[in-house]
Design brief:
This protein has 221 residues and is α+β, with helices and mostly antiparallel strands. It is 38% helix and 10% strand. It has seven helices and four strands.
Length: 221
């Protein structure tokens, strides 16, 4: 029952490592993995009315007026119900925030961001990681996961961000989440460095239809 408080402390510690000075927590309870008892908890995020969450997300977009919105992919990264719902509702909020007929919680003016991105892992990389984990740690829960249901086909990736200068900082931030198992602890240093040197994204809005790959969220803005 104290896990929420623990995770909040871990998050704030990670944000400090990353130099992030502002964050907003909506206070919903972790719903747990699909099929677990936590799914039934009345305060679980997946049991919160969609309209309530959408209104709060729209209010945040209208307040901060971002050019770019980023969230998880619609599959939730690895199928976590909260990740899926966060992605779905963030996508709805992106499309709704500019609608003047949608109610404003505290008088915010409509605002339509320019771009929406989904964070993804290339399928080729996931196959590489999971093959290594299966060979070296076959008893791990991750060894039973099928990377072909997790990764995104490489050809669908629209945007690759070069973030190698921040690898050590990112690893230190991940280490702050002590109550969770990081896959990086199971990978050799070369695969960890490879994982943290680039970020992969799918541009959902405006839709990407192939062609030259982006290397910056703000390309064209």
């Amino acid at each position: 029952e104290t896990l929420g408080s623990v995770r909040e402390v871990e998050l704030r510690s990670a944000l400090s490592v990353l130099g992030v000075h502002s964050s907003v927590l909506l206070g919903y309870r972790d719903s747990g993995m699909a099929g677990t008892e936590d799914n039934l908890h009345p305060s679980a995020f997946i049991n919160t009315p969609e309209s309530e969450v959408l209104e709060r997300l729209v209010a945040l977009i209208r307040k901060h007026r971002p050019q770019v919105v980023a969230t998880m992919d619609l599959g939730g990264g690895y199928g976590h119900p909260d990740h899926i719902r966060a992605s779905e509702l963030t996508t709805q909020a992106f499309k709704t925030a500019g609608d003047p007929t949608f109610p404003s919680l505290s008088g915010e003016e409509p605002w339509t961001p320019n771009k929406l991105y989904y964070h993804v892992f290339p399928r080729s990389r996931m196959v590489q990681w999971f093959n290594y984990i299966k060979e070296t740690n076959p008893s791990s829960e991750m060894a039973d996961m099928d990377p072909n249901t997790i990764g995104t086909p490489d050809e669908d990736i629209s945007t690759v961000l070069e973030v190698s200068p921040y690898m050590d900082q990112r690893l230190r931030a991940a280490e702050q989440h002590r109550s969770q198992q990081s896959p990086f602890t199971m990978l050799p240093r070369d695969l960890t460095n490879e994982a943290l040197s680039k970020d992969f994204w799918v541009r959902a809005e405006p839709p990407w239809h192939g062609g030259e790959m982006e290397t910056d969220f703000f390309t064209g803005l």
